[in-house]
């Protein structure tokens, strides 16, 4: 799993699940994203590590967006801080639909 460090990252967690890696890289490059906080990776009990659809849930919060990325056996939360909530939400949705999600 890749690790992310740099001026746009806060918090003590640096590891990102594979299905979210490209999206996080794109968000780091976006000039309207101020900060990203990477949450813990949680196992949600599905064995085998493969199968199932990768999903993303986006929720607006006061300072930006909360993202929850669910993969075959893992779930990870991210917090994206921005003043441009609607624009970044649209960016994430468009990115996820076009090339960000893992295809089988």
What can you see in these coordinates?
With 104 residues, the protein is an alpha+beta fold. The chain has one domain. It contains 2 helices and 5 strands. The protein has helices at residues 18-29, 85-100; strands at residues 9-10, 35-43, 55-61, 64-70, 74-81. A 5-stranded mixed sheet has the order 1-2-5-4-3, covered by helices on one side. β3 (55-61) and β4 form a beta hairpin. α1 packs across α2 (85-100). The longest helix has 16 residues, at 85-100.
Topology at a glance:
Blueprint: E1 9-10, H1 18-29, E2 35-43, E3 55-61, E4 64-70, E5 74-81, H2 85-100
Parallel strand pairs: 1-2
Antiparallel strand pairs: 2-5, 3-4, 4-5
Helix pairs in contact: 1-2
Brief sketch in words of this structure:
The chain is of the alpha+beta class and 104 residues long. Helix content is 27%, strand content 32%. It has one domain (9-100).
Largest sheet: 5 strands, mixed
How many separate structural domains?
1
What global shape is seen? globular
Mean pLDDT: 82
β-sheet strand percentage? 25-35%
Q: How does the helix and strand content classify structurally?
A: alpha+beta
Can you tag this structure with a few keywords?
104 residues; alpha+beta; five-stranded mixed β-sheet; 2 helices; 5 strands; globular
């Amino acid at each position: 799993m890749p690790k992310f460090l740099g001026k746009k990252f806060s918090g003590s967690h640096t590891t990102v699940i594979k299905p979210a890696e490209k999206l996080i890289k794109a968000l780091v490059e976006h000039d309207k994203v101020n900060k990203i906080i990477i949450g813990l990776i949680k196992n949600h009990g599905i064995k085998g590590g493969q199968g199932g659809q990768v999903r993303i849930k986006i929720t607006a919060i006061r300072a930006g967006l909360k993202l929850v990325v669910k993969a075959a056996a893992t779930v990870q939360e991210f917090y994206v801080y921005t003043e441009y909530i609607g624009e970044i939400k649209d960016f994430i949705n468009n990115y996820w639909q076009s090339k960000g999600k893992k295809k089988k």
